[in-house]
Amino acid sequence: MALIVQKYGGTSVGSLDRIRNVANRIKRLRDEGNQVVAVVSAMGGVTDKLIAMANDLTSEPAERELDVLLSTGEQQSIALVVMALHELGVDAVSVTGRQAGIVTTGSHTRGKIEAIDPSLMKQYISEGKVVICAGFQGIREDGMIHTLGRGGSDLSAIAVAAAIKADTCQILTDVDGVYTCDPRVVKDARKMPEVSYDEMLEMASSGTKVMQSRSVEFAKKYGVIFEVRSSLNDNPGTIVTEEHDNMESVVIRGVSIERSQARLTITGIPDEPGMSASILTALADAEINIDMIISNIAHDGLARHSVTMHSNDLGRAQAALKPILAKLGDSAGVETEAGIAKLSCVGIGMRSHSGVAAKMFEALGEAGINIGIITTSEIKIAVTVDETDIEDAARVVHAAFDLDKAPTAQ
Ligand code: ADP
Ligand code: ASP
Ligand code: MG
User: Fold this and answer.
1) Using CA atoms, how far apart are residues 363 and 392, in angstroms rounded to an integer?
2) Counting atoms of ligand 2 from 1, which one is nearest the CA of 136?
3) Which residues line ligand 2 (CB under 6 A)?
4) Range of the domain at 168
5) What pLDDT is recorded for position 319?
6) Which CATH number is 37's domain given?
7) Model's pTM, two decimal places?
């Protein structure tokens, strides 16, 4: 008998038939003698619809109210999953974030999990009940309803698995596992048997939507090994775990893409200490998530800084920089470019192999794809390209590194 935490994403509970499928899968695990806690997302599209309604009513919905509104999506689906389980004769009970003891911290709509008091869930488990827990939500220390950012049910599931010391944590979704690239974009992408936390984290934070990046960070911190697999079949998925010697030996593990990016360049900045800090502080104070940062060497005493961000944040970023630009004087200006996307190659093998960037840029060059900004980390090389080129870019880079083929032992 094992204690299993599962997470079912939006598509996996996207219709009543899918909810019946989830109930059947959970019943099967129960019949095999396991204890099950399932964390579920809102039915697919519900969170987006709630956000659209809020935006129709007001251009600036209060974030406290957004949390109250968005958390209702998961509350619907937990009740429906429990009803489907009851229909199959399974003793099951739903818990909201508050009832699950999920205590959060941080600004509204961007909650972080601080602690979990799983006593009620444990009591239900000991009574032989299946527990269906609302993903994406918790209660802030001041008692406010709080959501965990888009895709946040992944984080709920990993944190619950850590809190109740589950034997197994499975993230069930609409793909069979983590692929070398989004299989909807690169048809010959290959499902990987295993990925290290560090690679999964870099992939998730550079656009690989299958896992929310903060959930991977949490899993690494608390040593939660998890498996990404399909809610629609029984194929083995991808295990995400600490890096080890028997992992497939590759230089590049995967390719990530992130659309809807924008560049903002501040020109004519006096080349003096403290300038970069004041620009980045203004953006940070406006809670704008900056991704790439490039600073050009000053020419004639004037420098340029470019940053990238989600294109939705461009307007707010420009507004946040206005007071600084006014102080910088006539030399300063702002240029913006929307309609760009980011392509990243990720792999721990890069630590010990050179030539990865050259190979990536050569593949893009041969395909006639122009590169904008370039950044690197120890295990990642990322470039911006025109958004219209991103799918071709992903395919040519994926092919250049032979990612469709299983690596041969080295
Ligand atoms: P859920 O609703 O279950 O949370 P998501 O839509 O958040 O599911 O994530 C699953 C999607 O992630 C897949 O449908 C797939 O298109 C996308 N995806 C992007 N990159 C990858 C990748 N490298 N491997 C697997 N899926 C990926
Ligand atoms: N329902 C939330 C979202 O759509 C959380 C999740 O699905 O993980 O982002
Ligand atoms: Mg998701």
Assistant:
1) 11
2) 5
3) 9-10, 41-42, 47, 73, 135-136, 150-153
4) 3-174
5) 94
6) 3.40.1160.10
7) 0.94
